[in-house]
Amino acid sequence: MRILVVDDDADLRALIGFTLMQAGFDICTAVDGESALQAFQQNSPDLVLLDVNMPEPNGLKVCREIRGRSPVPIMMLTVRDVEEDLIEAFDSGADDYVHKPFSPRALLARVRALIRRSEPLDAAPVTAGQLRLDPEQRSLQFGAAPPIRLTPLELKAMQLLMVTPGRTVTAEKLLLHLWGRATARERRTLKQLIYRLRHKIESDASTPEVLQTTPGAGYKLVAE
Protein backbone atom coordinates (compact mmCIF):
# COMPACT_ATOMS: atom_id res chain seq x y z
CA MET A 1 0.00 0.00 0.00
CA ARG A 2 1.33 3.42 -0.99
CA ILE A 3 0.93 6.49 1.23
CA LEU A 4 1.54 10.08 0.15
CA VAL A 5 3.02 12.18 2.98
CA VAL A 6 2.68 15.95 2.51
CA ASP A 7 4.32 18.34 4.99
CA ASP A 8 6.61 21.34 4.61
CA ASP A 9 8.55 20.32 7.75
CA ALA A 10 11.43 18.19 6.43
CA ASP A 11 12.20 16.58 9.80
CA LEU A 12 8.59 15.61 10.44
CA ARG A 13 8.18 14.38 6.88
CA ALA A 14 11.25 12.16 7.30
CA LEU A 15 10.03 10.82 10.65
CA ILE A 16 6.59 9.96 9.28
CA GLY A 17 8.11 8.36 6.21
CA PHE A 18 10.51 6.25 8.27
CA THR A 19 7.73 5.13 10.63
CA LEU A 20 5.46 4.06 7.79
CA MET A 21 8.23 2.34 5.82
CA GLN A 22 9.21 0.37 8.94
CA ALA A 23 5.59 -0.79 9.09
CA GLY A 24 5.77 -2.04 5.51
CA PHE A 25 4.16 0.82 3.60
CA ASP A 26 5.45 2.28 0.35
CA ILE A 27 6.00 6.03 0.73
CA CYS A 28 6.02 9.03 -1.58
CA THR A 29 6.38 12.59 -0.30
CA ALA A 30 5.65 16.20 -1.19
CA VAL A 31 6.73 19.47 0.41
CA ASP A 32 3.84 21.78 -0.50
CA GLY A 33 0.40 21.88 -2.05
CA GLU A 34 1.50 22.13 -5.66
CA SER A 35 3.95 19.23 -5.44
CA ALA A 36 1.33 17.25 -3.49
CA LEU A 37 -1.11 17.42 -6.40
CA GLN A 38 1.65 16.41 -8.82
CA ALA A 39 2.70 13.49 -6.59
CA PHE A 40 -0.90 12.37 -6.26
CA GLN A 41 -1.32 12.35 -10.02
CA GLN A 42 1.94 10.50 -10.62
CA ASN A 43 1.82 7.94 -7.80
CA SER A 44 -1.89 7.13 -7.30
CA PRO A 45 -1.51 6.64 -3.52
CA ASP A 46 -3.89 4.51 -1.47
CA LEU A 47 -3.93 7.03 1.40
CA VAL A 48 -2.87 10.67 1.86
CA LEU A 49 -1.41 12.29 4.99
CA LEU A 50 -1.82 16.01 4.43
CA ASP A 51 -0.59 18.94 6.51
CA VAL A 52 -3.16 21.73 6.84
CA ASN A 53 -0.82 24.68 7.31
CA MET A 54 1.26 24.83 4.15
CA PRO A 55 2.03 27.65 1.73
CA GLU A 56 -0.67 28.19 -0.88
CA PRO A 57 -2.40 26.11 -1.92
CA ASN A 58 -2.87 25.07 1.70
CA GLY A 59 -3.86 21.62 2.87
CA LEU A 60 -7.60 22.29 2.80
CA LYS A 61 -7.49 23.42 -0.83
CA VAL A 62 -5.38 20.40 -1.75
CA CYS A 63 -7.83 18.16 0.10
CA ARG A 64 -10.76 19.55 -1.89
CA GLU A 65 -8.86 19.10 -5.14
CA ILE A 66 -7.92 15.49 -4.38
CA ARG A 67 -11.43 14.70 -3.17
CA GLY A 68 -12.82 15.98 -6.45
CA ARG A 69 -10.67 13.43 -8.26
CA SER A 70 -10.72 10.40 -5.98
CA PRO A 71 -12.34 8.73 -2.93
CA VAL A 72 -8.85 7.98 -1.51
CA PRO A 73 -8.72 8.21 2.32
CA ILE A 74 -7.28 11.55 3.50
CA MET A 75 -5.94 12.21 7.00
CA MET A 76 -5.18 15.83 7.89
CA LEU A 77 -2.24 16.79 10.11
CA THR A 78 -2.93 19.95 12.09
CA VAL A 79 -1.25 21.90 14.86
CA ARG A 80 -4.44 23.84 15.68
CA ASP A 81 -6.86 22.23 18.12
CA VAL A 82 -9.82 24.34 17.01
CA GLU A 83 -13.20 22.75 16.36
CA GLU A 84 -13.99 25.08 13.45
CA ASP A 85 -10.81 23.93 11.68
CA LEU A 86 -11.81 20.29 12.06
CA ILE A 87 -15.26 20.97 10.66
CA GLU A 88 -13.72 22.78 7.69
CA ALA A 89 -11.39 19.82 7.12
CA PHE A 90 -14.31 17.38 7.05
CA ASP A 91 -16.27 19.73 4.79
CA SER A 92 -13.28 19.69 2.45
CA GLY A 93 -13.51 15.91 2.20
CA ALA A 94 -11.06 14.71 4.86
CA ASP A 95 -11.76 11.38 6.55
CA ASP A 96 -9.78 11.91 9.75
CA TYR A 97 -7.26 14.19 11.44
CA VAL A 98 -4.29 14.00 13.80
CA HIS A 99 -3.09 16.83 16.02
CA LYS A 100 0.58 17.77 16.17
CA PRO A 101 2.67 16.88 18.02
CA PHE A 102 1.99 13.16 17.87
CA SER A 103 4.00 10.04 18.55
CA PRO A 104 4.97 7.84 15.59
CA ARG A 105 3.24 4.91 17.27
CA ALA A 106 -0.02 6.85 17.67
CA LEU A 107 0.09 8.03 14.06
CA LEU A 108 0.66 4.49 12.81
CA ALA A 109 -2.32 3.25 14.83
CA ARG A 110 -4.54 5.97 13.36
CA VAL A 111 -3.36 5.20 9.82
CA ARG A 112 -4.13 1.50 10.24
CA ALA A 113 -7.54 2.31 11.71
CA LEU A 114 -8.37 4.59 8.78
CA ILE A 115 -7.34 1.89 6.33
CA ARG A 116 -9.69 -0.58 8.04
CA ARG A 117 -12.57 1.89 7.96
CA SER A 118 -11.91 2.77 4.33
CA GLU A 119 -12.52 -0.65 2.86
CA PRO A 120 -14.69 -0.30 -0.26
CA LEU A 121 -18.30 0.58 0.50
CA ASP A 122 -21.14 -1.43 -0.93
CA ALA A 123 -21.65 0.33 -4.26
CA ALA A 124 -25.25 -0.81 -4.64
CA PRO A 125 -27.76 2.07 -4.47
CA VAL A 126 -29.90 2.17 -1.32
CA THR A 127 -33.52 3.33 -1.28
CA ALA A 128 -35.61 4.35 1.72
CA GLY A 129 -38.94 5.98 0.96
CA GLN A 130 -38.26 8.83 -1.47
CA LEU A 131 -34.55 8.87 -0.67
CA ARG A 132 -32.09 7.17 -3.00
CA LEU A 133 -28.41 6.94 -2.07
CA ASP A 134 -25.86 6.20 -4.79
CA PRO A 135 -22.51 5.34 -3.12
CA GLU A 136 -20.65 5.13 -6.41
CA GLN A 137 -21.63 8.70 -7.32
CA ARG A 138 -21.55 9.86 -3.66
CA SER A 139 -24.98 11.39 -4.19
CA LEU A 140 -28.34 11.47 -2.45
CA GLN A 141 -31.61 12.15 -4.24
CA PHE A 142 -34.97 13.02 -2.69
CA GLY A 143 -37.87 12.22 -4.99
CA ALA A 144 -37.55 14.02 -8.33
CA ALA A 145 -35.19 16.68 -6.95
CA PRO A 146 -31.66 16.93 -8.39
CA PRO A 147 -29.06 14.65 -6.73
CA ILE A 148 -27.11 16.15 -3.82
CA ARG A 149 -23.36 15.63 -3.61
CA LEU A 150 -22.15 14.16 -0.30
CA THR A 151 -18.77 14.19 1.39
CA PRO A 152 -17.29 10.75 2.24
CA LEU A 153 -18.32 11.11 5.90
CA GLU A 154 -21.85 12.19 4.97
CA LEU A 155 -22.09 9.20 2.65
CA LYS A 156 -20.95 6.76 5.35
CA ALA A 157 -23.40 8.22 7.85
CA MET A 158 -26.32 8.02 5.41
CA GLN A 159 -25.49 4.44 4.46
CA LEU A 160 -25.74 3.39 8.08
CA LEU A 161 -28.95 5.34 8.68
CA MET A 162 -30.68 4.18 5.50
CA VAL A 163 -30.24 0.44 6.06
CA THR A 164 -32.54 0.66 9.10
CA PRO A 165 -35.09 3.39 8.27
CA GLY A 166 -37.37 4.29 11.15
CA ARG A 167 -35.03 2.77 13.73
CA THR A 168 -32.65 4.71 15.95
CA VAL A 169 -28.94 4.39 15.25
CA THR A 170 -27.10 5.24 18.44
CA ALA A 171 -24.62 8.09 18.46
CA GLU A 172 -22.01 5.62 19.71
CA LYS A 173 -22.52 3.36 16.69
CA LEU A 174 -22.27 6.29 14.29
CA LEU A 175 -19.10 7.56 15.97
CA LEU A 176 -17.37 4.19 15.78
CA HIS A 177 -18.54 3.72 12.20
CA LEU A 178 -17.19 7.11 11.10
CA TRP A 179 -14.04 7.56 13.19
CA GLY A 180 -13.45 4.39 15.16
CA ARG A 181 -13.57 6.31 18.44
CA ALA A 182 -16.08 8.27 20.50
CA THR A 183 -14.34 11.18 22.22
CA ALA A 184 -16.05 14.44 23.14
CA ARG A 185 -14.54 16.11 20.07
CA GLU A 186 -15.99 13.50 17.71
CA ARG A 187 -19.38 13.83 19.41
CA ARG A 188 -19.38 17.57 18.67
CA THR A 189 -18.26 16.92 15.11
CA LEU A 190 -21.05 14.37 14.64
CA LYS A 191 -23.60 17.00 15.63
CA GLN A 192 -22.15 19.32 12.99
CA LEU A 193 -22.29 16.51 10.42
CA ILE A 194 -25.98 15.88 11.18
CA TYR A 195 -26.60 19.64 11.01
CA ARG A 196 -25.06 19.80 7.51
CA LEU A 197 -26.99 16.75 6.32
CA ARG A 198 -30.25 18.28 7.50
CA HIS A 199 -29.53 21.44 5.55
CA LYS A 200 -29.06 19.29 2.47
CA ILE A 201 -32.13 17.06 2.76
CA GLU A 202 -34.73 18.85 4.90
CA SER A 203 -37.19 21.47 3.65
CA ASP A 204 -36.71 23.18 7.03
CA ALA A 205 -33.58 22.07 8.89
CA SER A 206 -34.77 23.72 12.11
CA THR A 207 -37.69 21.27 12.31
CA PRO A 208 -36.31 18.06 10.79
CA GLU A 209 -38.81 15.52 9.53
CA VAL A 210 -36.46 13.14 7.71
CA LEU A 211 -33.32 12.98 9.86
CA GLN A 212 -34.67 13.06 13.39
CA THR A 213 -32.98 13.08 16.79
CA THR A 214 -33.87 10.41 19.32
CA PRO A 215 -33.21 12.27 22.60
CA GLY A 216 -30.48 10.69 24.68
CA ALA A 217 -29.85 7.95 22.12
CA GLY A 218 -28.98 8.92 18.57
CA TYR A 219 -30.63 9.56 15.21
CA LYS A 220 -33.12 7.90 12.91
CA LEU A 221 -34.14 8.32 9.30
CA VAL A 222 -37.87 8.71 8.74
CA ALA A 223 -38.43 8.08 5.04
CA GLU A 224 -41.94 7.70 3.66
From TrEMBL:
Query: Which processes are annotated in GO (biological process)?
Result: regulation of DNA-templated transcription
Taxonomically, which superkingdom? Bacteria
Mark the residues carrying the PTM 4-aspartylphosphate: D51
| Portion annotated as DNA-binding | 123-223
Q: Which SUPFAM superfamilies has this protein been placed in?
A: C-terminal effector domain of the bipartite response regulators, CheY-like
Q: Name one GO cellular component term.
A: cytosol
Which residues are in the Response regulatory domain? Answer: 2-115
User: What is the originating organism of this protein?
Assistant: Steroidobacter agaridevorans
OmpR/PhoB-type domain span: 123-223
InterPro entries given in the database record: CheY-like_superfamily (IPR011006), OmpR/PhoB-type_DNA-bd (IPR001867), Sig_transdc_resp-reg_C-effctor (IPR016032), Sig_transdc_resp-reg_receiver (IPR001789), WalR-like (IPR039420), WH-like_DNA-bd_sf (IPR036388)
- Which PROSITE patterns does the entry link to? OMPR_PHOB, RESPONSE_REGULATORY
What protein am I looking at?
A: DNA-binding response regulator
For molecular function, the Gene Ontology terms on record are: phosphorelay response regulator activity; transcription cis-regulatory region binding
Arranged from A to Z, the UniProt key words for this protein are: DNA-binding, Phosphoprotein, Transcription, Transcription regulation, Two-component regulatory system
Q: Which SMART domains match?
A: REC (SM00448), Trans_reg_C (SM00862)
Record has Electron transport as a keyword: no
Q: Where is the signal peptide?
A: none
